[in-house]
Structures are given as structure tokens and as C-alpha cells.
Amino acid sequence: MPKEKLGVMAITTLGGFLSATLCLFSVTFPSLIFLSYFTSLPLFLLGLGIGLRSLISAGILATGCIFLFQGPLLFFLFSFVGPAFFVHRALITRKNSSGKISWYPPSFLLRDTTLFAGIIMTLSLGAYIYLTQGENLSTFSTSIVSLLDPQGHIPGAETLLMQIFPFLPGIFTFSWILVMLFNASIAQVFLTLIKANLRPTPSFEAVEMPKSFLITLALSLLLSIVGVGTLELLGKNAALILTLPFFLSGLGIVHFLLHKTAFAKTRLVFFYCSLLLFYCSLLLFLWPALLVIFLGMLRPWIQKLTIAN
User: Fold this and answer.
1) What pLDDT, in 10s, does the model give residues 229-239?
2) Distance (Å, whole) CA 88 – CA 292
3) Where along the chain do its domains lie?
């Protein structure tokens, strides 16, 4: 066997074991729970640096390792299938008439990832309805709080949980897609630095959502207001998920506008530092985040006005 193939096999095996180790450590040692956020990072490094086949091989190996110690279903669905889908779309190419390669557009990539997240949200909503069927939400939330905070160190935890309970499927899916994009970004930045990336890094400025997403978001908000029961739950959670692509599209508009000014990089650093500072207080973060989401919704018209001027 050629040395190059042996090297790829060794790196793939190492990536699979590393991904499984991060998952098992986060479960075995509660103090290392933060490691669970990076279980898909080795797979993204393999997929975006070597190819989809390497990612799939490592993902199957990691799933098998986890199966020996605990149920592998959650890892398989969220740390393996998600990245495999994302990398598959990211590595799509086509040649134009002149033979130049064009990569799958970042707007399509975010669109497809959001649609995939919609499937995950629907499954999560089904699990939510199944778990809470015939159960009083107050009793259900009390049992969860007693499990997560048996000593009662978090005042008002039950009240807070009752408020966010209807959004749990959306919060779960929103967190999953955010963590996945975060790991994909880290992998792409690292691979670009060592010149091992398979595709160029997508530009934020090129991220634009189809108008059908805007219509779907409006319908979801309407359902969340006038809907009853399952329809209300569906509207609330779908609206939550659809804010993420518009938030990223809004960041693209910020990049687009600031790049037209002097000291663009400095202004961008200041913008992201301010956003991070606001994020430390979720209540304060809500307003700038809503502004960025609003910019994402208005993106087509802002770009037209900017180009016209």
C-alpha cells in the first residue's frame, strides 16, 4: 500500500479515536462537559482537509468506540451525521465552460444546513410532545430542576425553565447548528493556515438567504401568536431556528458596509468585541442581535441601495 494512503488511514483512525475520546470524557467527567462541544471538530478537520470519505470512516469508527461504553445514537446524529452532511455540501464543485472550478455557494450551504436543522427540530419537537404528553408542565419542570440542581443553588430555576420550556426543541437545534458551524469555522481556519484546506474559505459577504425563508419566518411568527397547541409550538421553535441564518446574513451586511469605510478591519474587530461584550449579558445581547437579524432580513434591499449609490 502506498505511503500516502497509509498516512491518510493513520490520520483518519486518529481523528475517529480523538472524536470518541472527547465524547466519552465529557460524559465520564462532568467537569469536562465543555469537551462535548468539540466532538465534531476532528471530523471537520478530516472532511475539509482530506475529504468526505475520511470523515465518514472516522465517524463510523468513533460511533463504534462509543457503542462499547454507552448508547451512540446522540453522537451519531449530532456529531457525525450533521458534519457529514455539511462537508458533503461544502465540497460540491462544478466547472464552467472555461474549465474554472466554482464551489458550492455559501448561501446555498447555509440554506441547506438550516433546512437540515429544520428536520432535527421536527424530531426534537416530536420527542418534546411525547415526553410531555399527559404530564403537567409544572410537575415535569420540577423533576428536571431537582435532577439538574438538587441543592437548589440556582434561585428561580423552575420559573425560568417554565418560561423557556416551549422553546426547548428550538433551543436544542439552534445550539446544535451553532456549535456545528463554530467547529467547521475553526477547522477551516486551521486548515487554511497550514495550507491543507480543500476549498476556499466562504465569505461572510456572500451569505444571502432566499426570500422564501423570510416568508417562512413571517408565517412562523404568525403561528407562534395565533396558533394553538402543537401549531404554536411549531411556530415558536421554527421562528427561533430561522433567526440564525438571518443573523449570519446580517453579519455579512455589516462586513459589506464596513469594508466600504476607512480602517475596515479595525472597525470589524471593534464590532465583534462589542458583540462579545453584550453577549456576556444575554439581555443586553438581545438588542444588537435583533438589529443584526433585521439587517439580514433587509439585505437584498440594502445591497440594491448601496450599489445604486
Assistant:
1) 778 888 888 88
2) 29
3) 1-126+168-202, 208-309
